[in-house]
Amino acid sequence: MLGESRSGLSRRSLLGGGLALAGMMAAVGALDARGPGAVAATRDLSAFRAAGAVRPAALVRAGQKFVYPESWSVRPFSLSSVKLGQSVFTRALNQHLVLYRAYNVDKILAVYRRNAGLDTKGATPPGGWEEYGPNPDAQRWGPAEYTRGQNAAGAGGCLRGHYGGHFLSGISMAYASTGEQALLDKVNAIVDGFEECRAALAAQTYNGAPRYSHPGFFSAYGEWQFSALEAFAPYGEIWAPYYTLHKIIAGLLDAHSLAGNTKALALAEGIGHWVFSRLSKCTQAQLDRMWGSYIAGEYGGMNEVLVELYWRSSDPAKSEFLEASKLFTLRTLVDACAAGTDTLNGKHANQHIPQFPGYLKLAAELHDDHYLQATKGFFDMVVPGRSYAHGGTGEGELWGPAGAVAGDIGPRNAESCAAYNMLKVASQLFFNDQNPKYMDYYERTVLNHILGGRRNNESTSGPENLYMYPVNPGTRKEYGNGNIGTCCGGTGLESHVKYQEGIYFRSADQKELYVNLYLASTLTWDETGLVLEQVSSYPEGETSTLTVKTAPSGPLTVNLRVPGWSRGVRIEVNGQAIPDDVTPGTYAKVSRTWAAGDTITVRIPLALRAEASYDRPDIQALLYGPVVLLASSSSTSYLKVSLADRLGLDGTIRRGISKSASNVFTVGTLTYEPAYNGKDVAYHMYFQRNEPSVSFAGQDSGVANPKRAGSTLLDDVWARAPFAGRSAFLDAVGEVTATYLADGVLTSRNRQKILLAAGRAPIDSIN
Ligand SMILES: [Zn+2]
């Protein structure tokens, strides 16, 4: 696996090995001639509703595809409501569509079919973690056939089925984005294949009884991983059974909502009932220990999909889904985060991040503020104090101490699954609380980490998505074999076919629109009639123009995101600057009755700036607007970079730089590529800022840059930028040098040299 090739050990690498148990097991039982309905009738499961054919179709059709809780004051648009135009994101979308159009769904179905004893139609599994493993036939074990420790072949293959769930989500998203019939056909073929496998599993017997505990059970391996988890089997004996199940249910829900497949909803309902039937028998202490178990208890967003299922389902026993969702609560984590007590150090990041969208949906459904406060507290523990410049978090999949960013740089920072899931947390928090910080984080992460994680390379075999997006000096992205079958390859199947999801949101009362991302696109808002076209080359260009193509039926307030890092943003409506303040880190509001042809122009000046890491002022990244720039270099120690001499009156880096149309910069001897470009070369995300002498715009004073209390004279001068003009700049140099003189860290002779250099500097002509 990829992790092994980089560092010798992946925490997800397969433990164990050795004894093969193949052959120990009897061959898969013959299909039970009674069929799933008959099996169900023999059970004392009063709340059970079978998936598939026994499910009344009328009830399924009554299910709602998109349900949003009343408490969400802001809500998303469906993926099919927003069409992407040409932008820096286009290449990743198109490259993924090549994969989806070419990929044979029999490969996706192979692991499920073999497990169910069905013909695999000559297909082999995708590979990577999505493989049969050393013991696939034995691993059809039902709960009654398995005793703790029986799987001595290691966890190889024990995550199989997860990638197929992601694939079903991704291809459903791709269909919603394009409307292509061939993609819809593949969605339906996968769901049909899943249902065939589920029915075959439900018909299997062991010692004359149904092999599995519930006819809703569906998986690409036996039920034993779930029963073994309840007996506290560790990672290595099992992998992460509920993690896999989450991906399958999420895929089914996406096939339902995005591709209209009602069979998918019925399958998910059957799984939901089965999950409830298992977990409702567990004690609270047992659940606490299971969900606290490293990797083995990793359940992805099981709690989220079960609430979603509860919302969409019209099943009379759907309350089981909500009850099951609550059973996934990791109480120690929720309580600590709600109390603002940071317990993340040493925890596996992506084991825990996906739980929070589930907690937010539980908060909404149960009107339980505790879950909401926990998620807000959690977000603030990760952003900014555990976030790298591109929005990534973690080292070697684990979190470090609070506030350690530069202090936690290692060889394997920033797992891409973690970024994928943090975007869900950020957007769902925004639905509750329109704090612009959530969308500032969203833009940074989706543009740099997610888009940059997609290798700029077409493939018909894999997602070409990185695993880690590391930040250490001279590092490389973990592309490996394109991450076919890994967790990050799985989330990568989804990330690049849903870029439209974060551009626009709407208020619950349908009276306000939020424009979060400046990204070429067209929104069709059915409830108001608005059709809005955004033309933009941002972040390669500065101006985005939104044109009302079809006017909404009534007055509408448009909230335009003014990025927290921005300066001098100008917004015009039909050529007139809006009268209200345009303040960085807010939404500018425009309320009016709109007519077809009305335009909103948003100009966001883009400039180079250095951004210090959270915990080390001297360890910095270079950004151009929202774009993180990566210095091309294979040196494995921090590059020393001086920038003070290049600053203009506004405090941005302006002197002696060159820029290409595609945001490739040259600053001094270094070339910087945008983090989003998907190149596979050695790079530095961070450098060490080094300002040895006091110099302004090419005028070197010859005086060593004096230090004082963790700061330097140049830091203190430029902390006062932007300057209104040359005299304001000279005043600042005069005042700061006076305080250094008074503190005894600058002689009056050297102060004079600095003032002379500042006076000679052509700083007002830099642009
Ligand atoms: Zn991952």
Automatic annotation (TrEMBL):
Keyword line: Hydrolase
GO MF annotations, alphabetized: hydrolase activity
The keyword Hydrolase is assigned to this record: yes
Domain Non-reducing end beta-L-arabinofuranosidase-like GH127 middle residue range list: 513-605
InterPro entries linked: 6-hairpin_glycosidase_sf, Beta-AFase-like_GH127_cat, Beta-AFase-like_GH127_middle, TAT_signal
Cross-referenced PROSITE patterns: TAT
Annotated Non-reducing end beta-L-arabinofuranosidase-like GH127 catalytic domain residues: 81-501
Pfam families attached to this UniProt entry: Beta-AFase-like_GH127_cat (PF07944), Glyco_hydro127M (PF20736)
Protein's name according to its UniProt entry: Glycoside hydrolase family 127 protein
